[in-house]
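Dear colleague,

Thank you for sharing your sequence with our group. We've completed the structure prediction you requested, and as agreed, I am returning the results in plain text so they can be pasted directly into your records. Please verify that the sequence below matches your submission; if there's any discrepancy, let me know and we will rerun it promptly.
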Amino acid sequence: MEFARRAGWRDSSNVSKIERGVRPASVEHVRLWCAICGASEQRLNELLAEQAAVERMWVTYRQLNRGGLKGAQESVRDRYERVKLMRVYCAHVIPGLLQTRAYTTAALESIRVEQHVEVDDVAEAVAERMDRQRVLRRPDARFVFVLEEQVLHHRVVPAEVHAEQLEHLLAVARWPSVSLGIIPLDAGRTVDGHRVWPEHTFVISDAELVTVELVSGFLSVSQPAEIADYLAVWKRLMALAVTGEKARRIITSVREALDA
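Please find the predicted structure tokens below.
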């Protein structure tokens, strides 16, 4: 191909791989393309900004936790301290901001094993997450959580840790900056003609960033149109949730079942 020839590439398949998204375009690729095509400095800067945004969209947990779990916890602190409205949806696990120390310890110990993290800094990572929870006391911010009820039932930790975690939820739900909604197991999952299915865990920070937690890493979404999609999903999920005394009754019922 002409581009490959002018780029000095012996393997012209590199061009089609980049075009089809099989191989991500690097900074060097962008600069090379602009040089060959005679793109303006402004266009070069625009494409470099887009390339950087795409590169930041997907981070694997292996990359994130390569140096240990504490660094991964520290990397998000600034976002939590600056946010004015954070909306969190979870279908599988108690959100980090609402976890007890014992629950967080169990969760991070599991992550260290599953992701083969060599550095053992679980205690330091737990301390960082516990310290971050101070943001829930911020008078200038609001944190809204929606949990599928099954999150409350998952017995992934010892009974005493599970019970403490549920009691902590009951306490935190009364804090002025916190709103906690529970989607009941038997909720009719239709809103305005839409079937509302459970989703992957996601967090909307103001209306500027959405992070989605997947099995091998997390996705960061910053394009307005895509954020709008998540806001629409959030609205439907929120419509299914019960709050206040109804939510507390569900949590209390699950807690009492642990003693049965």
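Summary note from our side: The chain has a mean pLDDT of 88.

Kind regards,
the structure core
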